[in-house]
Design goal:
The structure is a homodimer of 135-residue chains. Chain A contains 6 helices and 2 strands. Chain A is mostly helical and 135 residues long. Chain A folds into 2 domains: 83 residues, Multidrug-efflux Transporter Regulator, Chain: A, Domain 2 (Orthogonal Bundle); 50 residues. In chain A, helix 1 packs across helix 3. The radius of gyration of chain A is 23 Å and the shape is elongated. The structure holds a DNA duplex (30 and 30 nucleotides).
DNA sequence: CTTGCCCCTGACGTCAATGTCAGGTTTTAG
DNA sequence: CTAAAACCTGACATTGACGTCAGGGGCAAG
């Protein structure tokens, strides 16, 4: 279904820029088996436009606090949503999903804590203001 | 309003256990000016029960991705919600709040991405199962 | 007093994702 | 052709929040 005919094969610098990451990171992702590249005769990496999305996806998972190793375990089932790894991968994903949810809840708590702080800080400031404006 | 009369002054080991962090972390927090302690004649740290909540609060902010430095900037206004730092602190908090919200949104996106993955993985698996069960 | 446990400081180790530098090749622009 | 820009590998540096170890006290119980 996917036609890879005239897709502009870009080099690492372009992918880096378009995906918003450093060249170093892309090489690192490849080292961690999160990303692959075709190589030119001289050894330069070439990518297709699809990799942009993949990199962004990886970034999202990183932002979610997943480690390279964990991401590497999950990505195979993005690539080929097949194989017997199905069940194990589903478990793994479910587990990570839970972890993520927990983490999100923590962050929301932290934000709430900040909100509380801000509320009392504001109240205090307004009180000061009222006082300085004369009783 | 707060009476600090007979409050059990605990040592670092107890605080660590009750707040759910390592002794090392507590010393680190002190080093980072996030936490203070009174010292006994022999130099041992003593804390009151209040510090338990403070440590938990610090943990929440850490979980929210704030750095020690940032937390250190915010804590003064927890301690004394006063001073002229009010406005600056409010700005700072508001800024961190935004950062947190952004981060939370990213995490939710990551989770959504995982959900999508799981959905398609499940679909694929069920398809396989249907096939193996005979057409 | 000795044993044992908790505490102290100071310093080095760790881990993960990146930065950065060195030294060399390839591609591109003029 | 030539210089600049981009790429390559390999390796060491960095940052943050700790872990861990060394070497040395304090203090209760037996």
């Amino acid at each position: 279904m996917t036609v890879d005919s005239g897709e502009k094969r870009m080099r690492i610098g372009e992918l880096a820029e378009r995906a918003g990451v450093s060249v170093r990171s892309l090489r690192y992702y490849e080292e961690q088996k999160l990303l692959t590249s075709t190589r030119s005769a001289s050894g330069q990496r070439h990518y297709t436009d699809d990799e942009i999305e993949r990199v962004r996806f990886i970034q999202r998972l990183y932002a979610g606090g997943l480690s390279s190793r964990t991401i590497a375990e999950l990505l195979p089932c993005v690539d080929s949503p097949s194989e017997e790894n199905s069940d194990a991968a589903l478990d793994r994903m479910s587990q990570e999903r839970d972890r993520l949810s927990t983490h999100i809840a923590e962050l929301v708590q932290a934000r709430d804590a900040l909100d509380q702080l801000m509320t009392s800080a504001r109240a205090y400031r307004d009180q000061l203001q009222a006082a300085s404006a004369g009783v």
